């Protein structure tokens, strides 16, 4: 099993979620996060004061899936979330040793 964490633009969340649902991804965790990378934030003027915002709002999407569909999920996230500009995000892939569904006690891929 693989855990895929994707940091994406907030406005791309619905499109990515719908695309993953279409291939049978049954569950995901979504968190609002702040961060910066090459985008470096932005500067704005508010009531005559210059305000520098270094941390930008992003969305972290987490899914645990079987190894067989990991490459397909990664491709879908990249294709759906990509704008070609700084700040599109990153994807991290982790190996998952086991998954247990608390309600039923199922283990492994059955619990995903």
From TrEMBL:
Q: Which Pfam families match?
A: P-II
What cellular component GO annotations does this protein have?
A: cytosol
Q: Which PROSITE patterns match?
A: PII_GLNB_CTER (PS00638), PII_GLNB_DOM (PS51343)
Q: Which SUPFAM superfamilies match?
A: GlnB-like (SSF54913)
InterPro entries (alphabetical): N-reg_PII, N-reg_PII-like_a/b, N-reg_PII/ATP_PRibTrfase_C, N-reg_PII_CS
| UniProt-recorded Gene Ontology molecular function terms | ATP binding; enzyme regulator activity
Its GO biological process annotations read: regulation of nitrogen utilization
The similarity annotation says: Belongs to the P(II) protein family.
Q: Which PANTHER family match?
A: NITROGEN REGULATORY PROTEIN P-II, NITROGEN REGULATORY PROTEIN P-II HOMOLOG
**Annotated protein name in UniProt:** P-II family nitrogen regulator
């Amino acid at each position: 099993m693989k855990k895929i964490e994707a940091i994406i633009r907030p406005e791309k969340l619905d499109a990515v979620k719908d695309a993953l649902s279409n291939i049978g991804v049954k569950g995901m965790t979504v968190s609002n996060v702040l961060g910066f990378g090459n985008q470096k934030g932005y500067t704005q003027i508010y009531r005559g004061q210059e305000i520098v915002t270094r941390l930008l709002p992003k969305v972290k999407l987490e899914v645990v899936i079987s190894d067989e569909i990991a490459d397909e999920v990664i491709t879908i996230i990249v294709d759906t979330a990509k704008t070609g500009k700084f700040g599109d995000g990153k994807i991290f892939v982790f190996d998952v040793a086991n998954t247990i569904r608390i309600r039923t006690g199922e283990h492994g891929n059955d619990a995903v």
